[in-house]
Structures are given as C-alpha cells and as structure tokens.
# Entry
Amino acid sequence: MKNNSLILEEFLDNGFNLKSHLMEYLSIKECDLDGFLANAKMNLANLHPGDALSDVSDFYTDIVGDRHVADLAAWHITSKDYIADTLKLQQRFARDLVLDFGGGIGTHALANAMSEKVKHVFFVDINETNRHFVEYRAKELGVENKLSFCRTIEDAKISKFDTIVCLDVLEHLANPAFQIEIFNDFMDCNSIALFNWYFYKGEKNEYPFHIDDVQVVEKFFKTLQSKFLEVFHPILITTRAYKKIR
# Structure
C-alpha cells in the first residue's frame, strides 16, 4: 500500500495510468485518443433523448456505451487539480469498508484501494462497461484483491459501510432524495458519507442528463437536512462530508 502523498502524486502525474488504460482497453491508438477525449462531452450529450427518456437508468445501461467512459476520462484529465482535492478529502475520512456508488472510471475507488486505512472497496455502477473497465484497471494497478464490483448496493451483501463516496452522481438520478435515504440505512453513527451534486443542465443544455426539477431538488435538500449532519473540512471544494443524525 502507498501513503497519501504518493497516491496523490501518482494521480496528478498520470491519473493512475488512465490514458494507457484507455488505449489498451478500448483498442484506441495514441494518435486518436486526444480527439476521442476532446469530443467526449458533446458526443455524450448528443446521445441523450431528452424528455423521451422515461427511466434515467436506461441512459447509462443501454445507450451510452463507451462514450461515458470517454466523457469521465476527459473530465478527470482536464480537471485533475479539482479531482486531486476530492482525493485529499477522501483520504481524510475514508477507512475500512468503503462504498463507491456510481464510481465511473474508478479514480476514487482505486485511490481508496491503495490506502492503508481502507480494508475493502465495493465499487457500484449500473454501467457494465464502467465496471469492466475499472476491474481491468484494478488488475493493472495490482489492487484487484481490495475491490469488489457490483451493479447495486445490495449485491455487495454488506449491512453497514464505514465510508460512502458518491461524487458527481446525485444530479443524474430521478430521485436523489430517495438515494441518500438508502445511504443513511447503510451507515452507523461512525460512518462518513462524501457527497456532491450539480442540479443544473448548463447554459446551453450541455448537461441534458442532469436533474434540475425544482421540486425534486427541494425534496433532496429537505431530506439531506433531516437525515445528515455536515462535518466540517477545510478543503475548498464543492464536495461535503456528512454523518447521520442519531
């Protein structure tokens, strides 16, 4: 296992070998990778069927293919300083049994698997491509023994988690309030949850897959305030830490 400074250094240097993992897993040549990543956000947005989509989970299970991997990879590469700060926050709180919900390309799950304070990471994502890609990355990085890959939280067969990580996910859910109630059920009085959200479709609808319904968002904040108490941390980022109200 590595200490915190080495984990951050490796992420800032190469994103845990993200580009090489993408080229090998997706069979993309290095000369084609930059263009693939540069168009990732627009390609993903153009796939979204808008109001015709009846179930948001369908978008991530049946429609996106490897474009979601590309979009997330582009975000993690171009925003590495911000992502590094979320890793610092995670290092501050993450321990023992960790749930990474909607873990995407695996940056936070892999970092947790490298940590001496973490016993095991349960990577949950409904997108099969994401799960397989992160499983591939874990083997390449030598941390596969500390990771399990699940489609749902229930598949993990764990009654309580010591740490829950849910980043850049809640704004994609039809009912984010219900989701954090579920998280609350999987926490005890010593557990910590790390959440962020972005309930906004963008200036030019560049995030059509985000929820921005006023009533849905209001219900989320009411539920958050009734179930969780914020835990202060000094890192200036949008991600916040919570414990459940006893």
Summary: The first helix runs from residue 4 to 14. The chain has one domain: 4-244.
